[in-house]
């Protein structure tokens, strides 16, 4: 079956009160349109047509690597008019699926059965029953429960407004039929628009077979028109993701206080405390604890790791049994080998830290290669930047750097060397020696502290 998915994304979305086109607003860190594109692509065989209008360039440029046929709808004259623009792209034998760029959470498992209806039926509507159907198109049925037409809220009388079964907007049809029904549309209605929904009455008049598929989860078919609906779907989306993490065996101390904006894989016995945000591609090993208020973005976390409260890890690889934080910042390009320790108020950038090495307090380590079993004293800074260029610091194995030292790169501290506290190291330090740069300590016995006059 060749499925052609048409995604409507031409509307302005005035109620978002934004300069960004509505479909570019995100759910779970991903543009709503991109959710729908992924879902349509996952239907398998077939292709995707995007209908764009308002800020078309922004929308099209947001998906540079996706194979999508873009069709422009210069004036937004209604959903039917939007689909009419795609007619040259539709083949008679296509199964056409029409989805909406602002209905982001619809699932493949829901769209597939709708498409599967085509063949036995000519037209299939995804419908839902809502306690409050206000504003939506109503499904009008005959005495044998057969579908007769869809009537929009603004065109409905009091009887029709009582109907709770609504049109989600998502439909599937055989290409040849759809093209014919579209050609019959007019804009003789309350909104002076070409309604896609009027195709239903034309299909029924022809004696075509029209059916519906009921969607049980209202969030799946909820459109986003304003910030409130966006926030509501964000929470629903997050809860779903956290639920599947819990099904995989993760302890989540508060499901409403974990946000996932990307994809996460987890080992066994992972514990995630409150207010954690996982962004991009995050891989977490076994027996990992993530304490409150941590942000992990594109990170690989080995097994047995504890990420203590208020730590931020971005584009980094953390080996097994590492101990990080609290208040640590691990920046892009960092690799921590196993059993290493990064303590409070330590920032590490684009550096490799060897096995069992410790940077426990108040340090900046940047552009550094550090061996194993190194101890970096409190307040140590690698001075990697002269205002224009970045330079590397090389630290061997078993090095001990005394507190409050500055290592002015480019510089090499060889295996087994010790740096005396408070040193400013500008030249390479040889193996196994004490290197220090420090003015001699003196005491002045005759000195008298200034006295206050009483
Ligand atoms: C539409 C349906 C209604 C259904 C509801 C579900 C019609 C006439 N009505 O109403 O039965 O209950 O969706 O949410 O179809 N769009 C374009 N070009 C246009 C007009 C719209 O691309 O000229 C896009 C919008 O950007 C949006 C989608 O189509 O993504 C739906 O348009 P909207 O104006 O929100 O339709 P509704 O009035 O909500
Ligand atoms: Mg709408």
Account of the protein in words:
With 454 residues, the protein is an alpha/beta fold. It has 2 domains: 219 residues, Spore Coat Polysaccharide Biosynthesis Protein SpsA, Chain A, CATH 3.90.550; 209 residues, Hexapeptide repeat proteins (UDP N-Acetylglucosamine Acyltransferase, domain 1). It is built from 9 helices and 37 strands. The strands form 6 sheets. Strands 13, 15, 17, 19, 21, 22, 24, 25, 27, 28, 31 and 34 form a 12-stranded parallel sheet that branches. Helix 6 crosses helix 7. It is elongated, with a radius of gyration of 31 Å. The structure holds uridine-diphosphate-N-acetylglucosamine and magnesium ion. The site of magnesium ion (MG) has 2 residues, from loops. Magnesium ion binds next to loops.
Q: On the 0-100 scale, what is the average pLDDT?
A: 97
Domain unit count: 2
Q: What is the rounded Rg?
A: 31 Å
| Oligomeric grouping of the chains | single chain
Structural class determined from secondary elements = alpha/beta
Q: Total number of helical segments?
A: 9
The rounded distance between the terminal residues' Cα atoms is 99 Å
| Low-pLDDT runs | none
Summarize the structure.
With 454 residues, the protein is an alpha/beta fold. It has two domains: 3-221, Spore Coat Polysaccharide Biosynthesis Protein SpsA, Chain A (Alpha-Beta Complex), CATH 3.90.550; 227-435, Hexapeptide repeat proteins (UDP N-Acetylglucosamine Acyltransferase, domain 1, 3 Solenoid). 42% of the residues are buried.
């Amino acid at each position: 079956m060749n499925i052609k998915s048409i995604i409507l994304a031409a509307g302005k979305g005035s109620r978002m009160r934004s300069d960004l086109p509505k479909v570019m607003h995100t759910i779970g860190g991903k543009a709503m349109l991109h959710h729908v594109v992924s879902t349509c692509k996952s239907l398998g065989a077939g292709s995707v047509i995007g209908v764009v209008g308002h800020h078309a360039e922004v929308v099209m440029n947001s998906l540079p690597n996706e194979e999508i046929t873009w069709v422009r709808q210069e004036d937004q004259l209604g959903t039917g008019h939007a689909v009419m623009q795609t007619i040259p792209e539709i083949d008679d034998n296509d199964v056409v699926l029409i989805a909406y760029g602002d209905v982001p959470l619809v699932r493949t498992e829901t769209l597939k059965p709708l498409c599967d209806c085509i063949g036995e039926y000519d037209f299939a509507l995804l419908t839902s029953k809502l306690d409050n159907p206000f504003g939506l198109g109503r499904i009008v049925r005959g005495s044998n429960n057969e579908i007769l037409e869809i009537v929009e809220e603004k065109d409905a009388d009091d009887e029709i407004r009582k109907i709770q079964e609504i049109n989600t907007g998502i439909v599937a049809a055989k290409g040849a039929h759809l093209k014919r029904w579209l050609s019959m549309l007019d804009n003789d209605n309350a909104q002076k628009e070409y309604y896609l929904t009027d195709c239903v009455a034309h299909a029924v008049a022809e004696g075509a077979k029209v059916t519906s598929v009921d969607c049980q989860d209202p969030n799946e078919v909820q459109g986003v028109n304003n910030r409130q609906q966006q926030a509501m779907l964000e929470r629903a989306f997050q809860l779903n993701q956290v639920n599947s993490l819990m099904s995989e065996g993760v302890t989540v101390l508060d499901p409403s206080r974990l946000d996932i904006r990307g994809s996460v894989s987890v080992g066994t016995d992972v514990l995630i405390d409150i207010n954690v945000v996982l962004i991009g591609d995050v891989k977490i090993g076994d027996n990992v604890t993530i304490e409150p208020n941590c942000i992990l973005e594109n990170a690989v976390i080995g097994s047995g790791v504890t990420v203590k409260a208020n730590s931020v890890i971005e584009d980094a690889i953390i080996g097994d049994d590492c101990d990080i934080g609290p208040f640590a910042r691990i920046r892009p390009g960092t690799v921590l080998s196993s059993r290493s320790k990064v303590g409070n108020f330590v920032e590490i950038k684009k550096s490799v830290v060897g096995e069992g090495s410790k940077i426990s307090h108040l340090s900046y380590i940047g552009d550094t290669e550090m061996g194993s079993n190194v101890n970096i004293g409190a307040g140590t800074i690698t001075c990697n930047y002269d205002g224009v260029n970045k330079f590397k610091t090389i630290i061997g194995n078993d090095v001990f750097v005394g507190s409050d030292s500055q290592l002015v790169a480019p510089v090499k501290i060889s295996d087994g060397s010790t740096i005396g506290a408070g040193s400013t190291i500008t030249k390479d330090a040889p193996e196994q020696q004490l290197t220090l740069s420090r003015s001699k300590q003196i005491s002045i016995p005759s000195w008298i502290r200034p006295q206050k006059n009483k």
